[in-house]
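In this section we walk through a basic example: taking a raw amino acid sequence and producing a predicted 3D structure, encoded as discrete structure tokens. The instruction is simple. Fold the sequence below.
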Amino acid sequence: MTSRWPILALVTVAHALGALTALAVTPLTPFLLESLDLSRVQVGLCLPAVYLGGVLMALPAGWLTDRLGVRLALGLGQFIVGSMIALAASSASLAALLTLLVLGGFGFSVLNPATGKAVVEWFPPRERGMAMGIKQTGLTLGGLAAALALPPIALAWSWRSALALAGFLSLVSAVLVSILYRPHPVASPAQAADRPRLAELGTFLRRPPILVVFGCGLALSIAQSSLLAYLVLYIKETFAVSVVTAAQFLALAQVGGTLSRVAWGVTSDRSFGGRRRPGVVVSAAIGGVAYAALALGAMLPLWLMVPLALVAGAGAFGWVGLYFALVAEIGGPRYAGLLTGTATACSWSGTLIGPPIFGVLLEVTGAYTLPWLVLTAIAGAVAVTLPRLSPLVQRG
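The resulting token sequence is shown next.
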């Protein structure tokens, strides 16, 4: 492949299949709850386990992506996540399942820096927001496919069969990336002296506005991961519907996130002069309003949950493409992988604490009202803070 559009299609598919594999546990939580006899707090640990592995490896993954290149790093990452999730299907206990999910997260950590670096290498700044938005739809498309396909498979066979299939798909994707991906023909391999060093990260971390950007990514990930981890259970328990029906609302949220990522990418390129922060701010505000509405619980009619799930997904997932485009542009071609890896570590740290806190609040209060309102406050804080920063990227 020597054209940027087929390359974009390839990395988007790779991101989607990797995300389907890594997020496969989220629509399967009701099955895990019963099969492994878990509490609602314990089942909330499954998604953070994947992201714990991601956080532990995010910075090394970004550094390795800059040194090894996109093809090798992305193929290796997908092989690891596919293998570990496939093995997780045979888990006999929560401890074994969580351990394999953490190991799967090691491979999942490569997806953002590798696919983000591919976009920076292949697309000029005037098209980069749109390209990053399209690429980031891989996460929501993978989640959408998981939400629609895996619960029916689990009902027909078992959750273990569904999880094993999810792992196999990433192994297929690893093969496709290894065969089809090519580096940009104009970009020459970096000499050893020109490759980024981990120590150079300190130059960026000494800039307070960049630290605020990383903190906002953490905060928004708390909200995103909580919605991802608990929306299926919330719908099932609040409206007394089947697991398959509840998972379809998660799929609607993923649709909202997919559409908003593309829309914000195009808007940032064409209407905001390449600025990424306005879209992140508006996404946070939309999410805050949606979480406040979800706090109403059974007072809402079930039919209203259809548009509300779409809006909540747009707010929870829509900011990610712009966020990582901003971070990659701060780092530039040389440091895009390193900065994206650092941002991934920060944002995914929010996933480690979001679902457990949501679960604890749910157990203590016995209702979903307070957890959703806490997410409203978090999203509102980002919407107020992020616009106050000075410009972070010089645009010609």
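Looking at the output, two observations stand out. The two ends are 30 Å apart (CA to CA). The mean pLDDT is 84. In the next section we compare this with other chains.
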